[in-house]
DNA sequence: GTGAAAGCGCTAACAG
DNA sequence: CTGTTAGCGCTTTCAC
């Protein structure tokens, strides 16, 4: 079964392909094509279930109606949830999403951007990894809409939607201090993206503001993509060497989940005297016994702001004058006490 | 900055575009193009960072090197994990993934298939919703590779990767019975896809084989996409009306997670006398106090089998003779006792 | 060994 | 009001 083309429709309707094309693109009125012809052609299109070949259209018009989405890992609930919301909104506007996971690997990220480029995606939504600033600059130089999120690239003039990471850990740390905690550990990843660094800084600043000293022994950095065993061992070591720890702040949900696993293994109870807080919420924390307080990122709002910016830029990419300036959105995280 | 085309390269290298094209496609040797020319052209390609326009290539060749992935909801960890694995393997073979969430809505699923079609995706990976059998048939009739997974469409001659759902609930139920449970409730969704029905049947059969009667009062069906409040209320009601319940088998992880939330609200302890089992694992269950036993689906293997079939069909789609017959893969779930 | 040219399906000047 | 036609960038047949 061969796919239909605009030609087949034209032949069947006994009009030219131009006429069909105009009707297909809603330019019939403006081209003052007669009602009779429009109706006839539309009837045939419907009857034959003709769908224009989007690839040909893309080649001709230069836009593909797809948005490239680059995240760290689509199987991380944080990214998956955002992906889902973005997909929904994009779908309603006729856009499709092509996604890829960068694994925090700049080489892979660069390669993915290349692939997206050669596929002519209309816009990019990127959770950036360090080292791809130049690639993003290139995109911008070509006038392609880009929004970065989750992490900021401070010295890049690019739209971004971020959460105030500094404040997130600040309020969490402050909460712990107010609860009388004296030895608050901080567990994070070794990926020094702006966002992670800020989470660390928020923690440090809160300690300082409340007259506590930052103790490097209570700071653990886990390599990204560490095999589980190593991570477990590293965390165990920290707990063993520092029995005075009375609270732990994890800079990201999957580390906190690993942490809970380790605490279970070493049979350390979470209670009034030993508190855990995670950055990013997760069902695990809500249902845990006892429940775990978290710094929650407004996922819904993040996704909304991202796609709004993208769609707006896309809608106005023809007349650059109409494009609003850079959007640098900073949303506030919420502390959920449990 | 205008994008380069093959023409620019040809001009710069002072050869014809044909030559460039051959070199680009690795047909240089077979066309017996001289080494000197090849090297010169390749140097220029590298120097100018030329990337062929994939859209034009697609229009010409008819294949887009992208695979359409239709899942119920990309933010469900089960689908997200599978999506991730599929993405990885596809990426290594030069394929990209375009995903969409069907929300169990046949109209949306149909529409998405149309969109993918007009975008000429090379192959489809679909977690089917009932009512799209005809659309899948159409795809097959056109010779496009399709693999369905998670749910089977029994009367369709299409590649599928499924898990033995019947056996999954059977062994879980048997486990509970062997633990001495007499009133095992079953909570499932109202979506009557083959896979969910089989989970129910496995539960029923196990009861029967062990001389227990199926009690409809202990069977609760939650509407898909139910607002949280309703679901909670429905579950509460079941627990209230049937205090004799000594175990609950949830047919899917998100229902079990909801269930845990409800049990927390009504302060019902999970212990030797009251056991919970979920279909599909999740971090929540592993870390829960007490931990929750689950029927685990071999996600990794599912993803692997899917992408293997797809890539194999794709590789041999030119010579249909070489295509192996239908692959109907059935994998076994594992019961994880915790 | 290399090049000219047709054409994939569609859009949009430009003609009439 | 509708049709003719020139490409979009690439692959591939055929010719030299």
TrEMBL record, chains A, B:
It comes from Pedobacter frigoris. PROSITE patterns: HTH_LACI_1 (PS00356), HTH_LACI_2 (PS50932). Pfam families: LacI (PF00356), Peripla_BP_1 (PF00532). The keyword Isomerase does not apply. Residues 4-61 form the HTH lacI-type domain. SUPFAM superfamilies: lambda repressor-like DNA-binding domains, Periplasmic binding protein-like I. This is LacI family transcriptional regulator. Keywords: DNA-binding, Transcription, Transcription regulation. The keyword Methyltransferase does not apply. Signal peptide: none annotated. GO terms for molecular function: DNA-binding transcription factor activity; transcription cis-regulatory region binding.
